[in-house]
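Below is the data:
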Amino acid sequence: MTLEEIHGQENTMENTDRVQSAGAALEELLIAAKKQDYLTVGVYESAKVMNVDPDSVAFCVLATDEEYECDIALQIHFTLIQAFCFDNDINVVRVNDIERLAHLVGADETGESKDAHCILVTSPSANPWKDPALDKLALFCEESRSVYDWVPAITLPER
């Protein structure tokens, strides 16, 4: 085994731990933001918030799964949302477990699952919301960008 192979194995294990830690932080953040009523759920609802008050957006989660990977309209929306987030210094991540995300953010007034393809964590501009999980995710995104992973994928913890 070469030094490069050993170093590669160590990096893979460190990266797995980083992603799992980020997944736990994302779950904590979504639960806390939901309690504070700081979540915007849905592609169109998120676009409205970004258009009206982009400074209130603290974090963005884009979610898809195998069923929606070929949905061209959704991918176009994702591209536009990502570009907006990059232009406004908003951290953005991808999650591949839309059912779990929908469960975390809850149902709408009719009892149906919300469209969890895009979730924004907002914070009032006048009184910014501070959360340790948000800080962990910001660091995770910054570290990911340093290795040219512009929209890192996060795996939520199993329940």
Q: What stands out?
A: The helical segments are 3-36, 43-52, 72-87, 98-105, 132-146. Residues 51 and 84 are 10 Å apart (CA to CA). DSSP finds five helices and five strands in the chain.
